[in-house]
Amino acid sequence: MILDDSIAHIWYIIRDYPILSSVVVHVFLTTLETFFLQLFFMLFDFEFWKLKRLAVYERIYQDKVTYMESIMLVLKNSALLWLGVAVLTFAVTGDIHGHYAIQGITRDRLPIEAPTFLSFVIQSAITIVAVDFGLYWMHRAFHVGFLYRKFHSVHHAYHDTIALHSMCAHIVEIYSALFLLFLIPRAVYECTSIHPLVVYMTPFIMTLHGVLEHCGYDDMIDTLTFGLFSGSKMHMVHHQISRKNFGFYTYLWDTLFGTKLTYENMETDILKRKEQ
């Protein structure tokens, strides 16, 4: 009951305050979420609080210089992301706010009632799996030839990831991911009639996960979701062994297409190397 009331409260705020549905405000809020999460993990990175980092093949010490370089890239990409969204929204709709629609879902189509918490969780899971399918193939494409050399190699310069690295990528790749992150939930909405709140909240869920999967610490998402969704372990494997684990949020597509490698198998290999 409390969870249902919380979901309803969030929906009523979004429905009653159209500015929150503005495309540029929506992107700004997810960017703000990223900043606060990254600041939180800085406390662990600089050992104000102790938390053991994941074991990796290649450990790169993050000194103040490299940290500052990462911060500057995050700030640059965040500014370019917000500016690009503002310009594109105005070019397409003639309104910098996108007419206060939720990713194209106009306000006259918004239901009065909020979803139940259980319904929200189930619909969000379905949407995340769909988004992950699109991002899986986009990610594989960015590992091929020109796309890797020109764009994705920027992100793979970081073998031992920290939370900041979730936004340390070429802006073309960030725009590409954002396009799918907005397009696919809208497509799922049109095909299945999921609640618009799911469409609205998906970028916030993905932003949270993006920081967690790059943090370099065990976020336990794998354990808590019984292996249905992936966390920092899976993505750390990808940054160490780039031909594996192209999925962002689930193990499903890597399992189906034969590109899955568990952290435990990589860790076993690390220990064997240390013994040699």
Describe the structure using short key phrases.
276 residues, mainly alpha, 0% strand, globular
Describe the 3D structure.
- By secondary structure, the chain is mainly alpha-helical.
- The protein has one domain.
- Helix content is 62%, strand content 0%.
- It is built from eleven helices and no strands.
- The protein is globular, with a radius of gyration of 19 Å.
- It starts with a helix and ends with a helix.
- The mean pLDDT is 90.
**End-to-end distance:** 57 Å
Order of helical and strand elements: HHHHHHHHHHH
Share of helical residues: 55-70%
Kindly name the structural category: mainly alpha
The major sheet is characterized as: none
How many E strands? 0
Count the helices. How many?
11
Helices and strands in order:
Layout: H1 2-16, H2 23-45, H3 64-93, H4 117-141, H5 145-150, H6 171-192, H7 196-214, H8 221-224, H9 232-240, H10 252-256, H11 263-275
Concise account of the structure shown:
This protein has helices spanning 2-16, 23-45, 64-93, 117-141, 145-150, 171-192, 196-214, 221-224, 232-240, 252-256, 263-275. It has 276 residues and is mainly α. The protein has one domain (2-275).
